[in-house]
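Hello again, I could really use a second opinion on something today. I've been puzzling over a protein and I'd love to understand its fold better. I'm sending you its amino acid sequence along with the backbone structure tokens. It would help a lot if you went through both lines with me. I've dropped the whole record in just underneath, so have a look.
***
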Amino acid sequence: MKIRIPDEQHAKIAANQRVMCEQIARKIEAGEPLEGFEAKIAAAVLRGHASQIPDTQKKGRGNPELSVNAIDPANVAILLAAGMRAPPRGGKRNTRAAVIARLAEHMGVDVATIRKIIRTHPQEVAEAEAFVSQG
């Protein structure tokens, strides 16, 4: 059963929930412990997000394997940042170009597609690099 509330009240509730989630995210990023209720909220939010992850890709125009829209920029950003910090392969330093090439091969797309995702989503790349460098 759903209860309908006025739009103004819903907007206030949504704003409060965003503030609370942002506060919890800051605590997690700072390595601060979560209080019991905060941990339950974080777990519920993650479970809710996990349940929304589709098993199939959205149907887009053109070849989905080569479509920038078919690849999650956050995944590219995290894998790029992790690849740059990974131990060198064959005694050679990990260059950005080499990591991008491996990432493109792993995702089954060309290097230009990965470069376009990186270029068009600089905030995700910066956040992923900051996150990975903390570890």
Observations:
- The mean pLDDT is 81.
- The two ends are 44 Å apart (CA to CA).
- The longest helix spans residues 7-30.
